[in-house]
């Protein structure tokens, strides 16, 4: 038998009788499992999840579920196909032994694997003072249970809700409160809502939007402590300027923490920013060497992105979990040269205060912004972000149908400012500083563009610039 | 004589039943300049790019050629457009387009305003379809257009909009007259088409008059349906002017039945030509949902659209479409583009990743798509289930004249009977 035939035989055999373990039974885990079966993997598949529930969808939790439109237990993810798998739900993975190729579970069991997918996602950052975090009425939102409990309390209704942190989730919670006619105070340490994700210029618009809807928005301030009543229910918050806010529900939306603790000692490049992997989802070890048998997808993954100067991006977005999982799963049952990169343009959507906010690309990668279409006053607009003369991201407020256009420009490393539209131009189309809190130092590399349109065809191409 | 371009050949009436070989030729030049200065775009990727390009206008008033300020080619001689004084959502750009569409949307579909409006029509649609099939009992030959495809959408759109069904024969006549004069091919210059144009202009004017009167009636006395609501209720952005509303009413009456009629007719025709697919659908009725998407791809109800133009020079696929040039987007061709769809000329009811352009894309994505989908799913699903041993009598059947809304005039089918 030739060497090539032997390898092909091994792949066939692995597909027929290999053992794959997926840790993390949520969006990325489920989509990966489906893709594995789709790609003809008939071996044993074990899916481990620490939550007791079948995979469910998180975006509705801070939207429809909080509003009371959809019960928290009606968010189960639709199944795209049969997945014949051994589901171990309600039990956490607590360790990984790469030498023995085993995942250690909290119940003491060891699960052997030939290939492993890490899809453990992130969890909500808790209010840092544990005693205060334990007060009744103090919440974070990540899980079904979180959303269910918070929804119940919002239905009471509370006299005032305090939201700490005005990122996307915090802003969505504030929006739901206003829709339910509940007084709400939002405290944000930065200069405006959404400023980390979209910069100060858009942040100002978001701030105005919140104020127009009656949110008591306090920016440039922190919450220093939470105080409870005798019964242990939160009643008041003390802010860094010495003022206080009386509230009986507090939602801490302080960002997320990657679920990597169980990988300690495994020798993988896992840490605060996630698990490092290549663009095909193959995990790196701490030496920066790519592994053959361990893959990563979803919120917990962190991979270099060709369009963003090969910076390792962690994308906490729904699309990223789905497409990253599909690419990783494909690569788990294929060999070079049939590997597929996961070259998604990051994208995000959020609904708040009656406006559909969407972005494509990586806005914080830009240092300039220009309004390209529509009207800021009417909150129907598109804006593009630029970095060194090229477009790197775009954001739309109720103008989502144009995102595809900007996405194409970004993929093609199009110019910034982009070509002016023929109509519906805002009066001022001059680029201005985007006002991100943390500007980066640019490095000099040629432009990279994405080519191909089907996920399996997408590759990168260098197009050195001649100026 | 100069040889005709593939596009001109595709538009010839003689090729109406099968324009696809010409489309195939056309796609070799994804953006093809025509002798009249029109740029015809025929490949999927390029059409999608232009549908999302804000330098492309949908407003014929912004296109010097189409607006008739330059005597270049036939698009100027379009009677429907001339007869309409106000734009509708399909012939205007943002911000007008967005505002009017936003005003109309809540009265039609679209969560959160009216999430159940369309799905609540399903029982009615089923009853209608059942009735039409019941009426075929005892017949051995039916016309899938006149007996089936036509009556359903007309009845439904009248109900949704609040247009009296009694008026249907009148606007049916107006629409036919207008469409028969609307020609984008080499035959547009013929005596016959030219002679039809005066009549078409009159028909559209009469139709406009009819819509205006109907709206006036609803202003006096509100009634059921979307038009009355638009006349009488303030949306978040105020009320539409009467002229704009009348123009949009025409668009909806027109689009609401023309395209759906052709889609149902083509679906029946296509399934009869593909007995395996028909049998599969009979065995697995749940395939009707992806199946209708495939039928939409396979025989797009709107073969191309013709009101777009370039507001700037646009570089695409190695060509520059110059500022001011009319752009025709050939959906019917894009939907058979092998670069996008594997084996595009095969009918595959289970096709995956079937993002066809049967309803277009971008901001002008078909307003009526959810309604059309529901109607066609019910109609075709029930036809397949209930009609016994259907056989095409004539293939290809006679086609209607118009190229945009391409469809068979009659589809005669021999049947053994109608199941309950
Ligand atoms: C409230 C909310 C709203 C959102 N809204 C949007 C939105 O509008 N748009 C958007 O694009 N994205 C949104 N997101 C983000 C989106 O939900 C995530 O990107 C997506 O869920 C990521 O999927 P994942 O499978 O990678 O991770 P997760 O969904 O976090 O799943 C990881 C799973 O692994 C489990 N797990 C963790 N550690 C272990 C362990 N050691 N052993 C076993 N199991 C473990 C976790 O409990 C969890 O079930 C939202 C997220 C939240 C929380």
UniProtKB/TrEMBL annotation, chain A:
Gene Ontology molecular function terms on file: oxidoreductase activity, acting on NAD(P)H
Cofactor: FAD
Assigned GO CC terms: cytoplasm
Pfam families xref list: Pyr_redox_2 (PF07992), Reductase_C (PF14759)
Chain segments carrying region Disordered: 416-467
Residue stretches making up the Reductase C-terminal domain: 348-416
Signal peptide start-end: none
Gene3D superfamilies to which the protein is assigned, alphabetical: 3.30.390.30, FAD/NAD(P)-binding domain
Listed Pro residues bias regions: 416-440
InterPro entries: FAD-oxidoreductase/Apoptosis (IPR050446), FAD/NAD-bd_sf (IPR036188), FAD/NAD-binding_dom (IPR023753), FAD/NAD-linked_Rdtase_dimer_sf (IPR016156), Reductase_C (IPR028202)
Keyword annotations: FAD, Flavoprotein, Oxidoreductase
Residue intervals of the FAD/NAD(P)-binding domain: 19-322
Regions of compositional bias (Basic and acidic residues) in chain numbering: 455-467
Organism domain of life: Bacteria
Name the record gives this protein: FAD-dependent oxidoreductase
Organism field: Streptomyces broussonetiae
UniProtKB/TrEMBL annotation, chain B:
Keyword Heme belongs to the record: yes
PROSITE patterns the UniProt entry points to: CYTOCHROME_P450 (PS00086)
GO molecular function, one term: heme binding
InterPro entries per the UniProt record, alphabetical: Cyt_P450 (IPR001128), Cyt_P450_B (IPR002397), Cyt_P450_CS (IPR017972), Cyt_P450_sf (IPR036396)
Keyword Ion transport: no
Keywords: Heme, Iron, Metal-binding, Monooxygenase, Oxidoreductase
One Pfam family here: p450
Family in the record: Belongs to the cytochrome P450 family.
Protein name listed in UniProt: Cytochrome P450
